[in-house]
Amino acid sequence: MKPDFRKILTDSLRMTIDIATESVDGKLEYFEDVLNLAIGDEAPLNMRASRVIALLVDKYHGLLMPFVDEIANLFPNFNTDGQKRSFAYVLSKYVNRLNEDNQAKMIDVCFDYMLSNEKVAVKYNCMKFLFQMTELYPELCGELQSAIDFNLKEGIFRMNGEIKKIYKTINTLSY
Fold this sequence. Notes:
Blueprint: H1 5-8, H2 14-24, H3 28-38, H4 45-59, H5 68-74, H6 81-92, H7 100-114, H8 120-136, H9 141-153, H10 161-173
Helix pairs in contact: 2-4, 3-4, 4-6, 6-8, 7-8, 8-9, 9-10
């Protein structure tokens, strides 16, 4: 029987998200159902479904491949923090799959988000996306370093863990 993800995603508990993730079970049809909820306008359902997509791409990387450019194209129009956070994370795993127009669009939007009043998790995942893009476009290192510096100076980011690793890597690449 086909899962009803609207009924499954009634709350944002991790257990609920895990149940929805397991219900997809690698099936493209079910994945598309969750993806349609995730890219939709109905909050908080879209935020919950976005979290499921983020977990699914870690387990079933290939399921999202046909949709990466569509999602990148929609990304600037996402209204909820959950969508922005999850899809910045998701698209950071597919930077090589994006067409050049969508790469440019995502770069612009992610830099805008890093320098705006977005939530910390949105900024952080945009930073991760941009860091992945520096492998394709090393000339972005200086701008990414400046965006990280801004967030450090404002007390939004703390220099630890992954931020320290990213900062050190882009600092090396930009010289």
